[in-house]
Amino acid sequence: MPGKLKIVVSDFHLGAGPPDIHDNPLEDFVADEAFARFLETIRAESDRDGKEVELIINGDFFEFLQVPAVDEFDPQRPYPPEAYYDSSQAASIKRLNLIVAGHSLVFDAMADFIQVEAPRRRLTLIKGNHDVNLYWPGVKQRLREVLGATGRRASMLLFAERYVSREGIYVEHGHQYAERLNRWHNFDDPRDWGNPDQLFYPAGSQFVIDFFNFVERDRAWADSLKPLTALAWYSLQWDFSFAARMLLMLARHAPTTRLGGKGGTSNSLDALCRQLGDDIACQDLSDRYHAFLDFRRDFHTRIGQLLVPVSSPPGMFVWPTPPADESAAEIARTEIEEIQASMRRVAGRLAAAEGARVIVFGHTHRPGLETLEDGATLINCGSWQWLGGYDSTDAQAWRELFGRPDWPRPRHRLTYAHIDYDEQDSPQAQLLDFAWPQERSMAGEQFALRRMLDQFRRKLGGVGKR
Fold first, then answer.
1. pTM summary value
2. ω into residue 227 within 30 of 0, thus cis?
3. Could you tell me the residue range of the domain that residue 125 belongs to?
4. Structurally, how many domains does the chain consist of?
5. d(Cα 358, Cα 380) in Å, to the nearest integer?
6. Cα–Cα distance between 87 and 73 in angstroms, integer?
7. Mean pLDDT for the stretch of residues 375-386
8. CATH number of the structural domain spanning residue 388
9. With contact defined as beta carbons under 8 Å apart, do 234 and 329 qualify?
10. Which of 38, 283, 286, 302 is such that its CA lies 20 to 30 A from the CA of 422?
11. What is the mean pLDDT of residues 139-154?
12. What element of type H or E holds 131?
């Protein structure tokens, strides 16, 4: 009897292309051909075994925060923040069209993947904190047109506002369980309370628009570390001036980090921000930070008052102030591990509440598989971004990046969750890596030829017209 198969990926962050970090410094996804070949492989497995397949894309598939709402897009042009802040339905559709144009191979492959005939192949999209724009009905309809998921194929494309919970699995992006900067009060309906024609952008989204969209032109890896406050700690150790810029922007976007504005704490942070914003005073801070252990300890305490509240997981108002005598890199590593521990605790609760045997998160870009106390499996799918091969806790790797901020060589780890079902219809999950050679080969040429033929047949049949 044919079975079923679930495939889960997350955090592709497709921008407006083209898929080359040299052509568009804000483009994080360069694995277009690899993903197309990946879907071809899943299709082959489905046909061979007669299995129905559901491909679940678990949030942040699109990078709406780094695609301007413009009619004529120039990937080399640094657009002002205003070009990114309009989150209306019309502006979101305009952004989606740019993403589709920049990654046509990806969308053609997804359109080819969907199949209403047996064995059926379905696609489910869950929105994340970088593609909350999927909330709009017009964006969903435009995706249906792009993927040819209309008419009798309409049921093969599903949208989930926050999570998928069925057939023994629970899949959610996970940003609601991580740092405070990236949380919504109501992610099912993420519209701005004061202006329902716009979406609410939390401090983390605003930070991407106002900070990363500019610094990433010089540091292509800058927004790859989660939580982003860990990047501030790493920066303190290896690039104090960059850390100062980042801390000032965080203070601007997250004023609640000042512990409710309590007297001396608020005044101390105000004074610190004034120092960080003055070139001469900032250089003096940097010199003393690197030269004197006692100063460094005190400085860590002050920075902790700024950073710890915004990175605190749910259930904690703030983390304890980081140990003053630890290096900034060790504090960053601790932050990253605490976010993972928070998501692990949430996964345990969800397993019990939803009766799920497999919990899948994304968001942190850190792939992993572990067994929870009740025997359920927790998987993080990781990311297919070009920096996906880095361990976010590897301080030495980040030190090398700070030493060479223009380092151009991509590293990939193309991870995904593969969920099969046994004879008792119980899900069995694996975290796998898709291996795809970067260089062109005879197999690649044959793959490209087959794709052209498939697309020709599909369009000849009137399916998936743009």
1. 0.90
2. yes
3. 4-215+336-460
4. 1
5. 11
6. 17
7. 92
8. 3.60.21
9. yes
10. 38
11. 97
12. none
